[in-house]
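Schema walk-through. Below, the input block comes first and the output block second. Nothing else is stored per chain. Lengths vary across the set, and this one has 144 residues.
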Amino acid sequence: MLSLSNLSPARKSRTKKLRVGRGPGSGRGTYAGRGVKGQNARSGHKGLRRKAIKTFILKSPKINKMKSLYPKFEAISWNAVAKVWPEGGKINHRNLIKKNLSKKSMLVPKIVGPIKPLNQIYILEVAATASVRDAVLAAGGKIK
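--- output ---
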């Protein structure tokens, strides 16, 4: 009958950790599996190899691991935006590229610069500084 008193793990499922270099009776004693004499039998013989790997890693170019996770912004002045859209309108990344205000499609455009009170209504779909956002909202525009 099966009970807690006669439970045991399966055969060979629990093996003890081999303690290397702890005497001839331990299974890996005396030379600890390194052979007799020679460069490989010495302690620290892997140090140069480790040093070479470290210098290789330091010299190799870091492709994507060192880049910032945050997007890079392309600053666009509000004066340039106001010249292109004097009557107001929708301002998004695609429109900025069409009007040649944003040159790099990879960067996120951000509208910056001092701004005067507005009479036109703008709809912003890009990043903007706090002063630009406040002026657009005060004139009755929207920010998405």
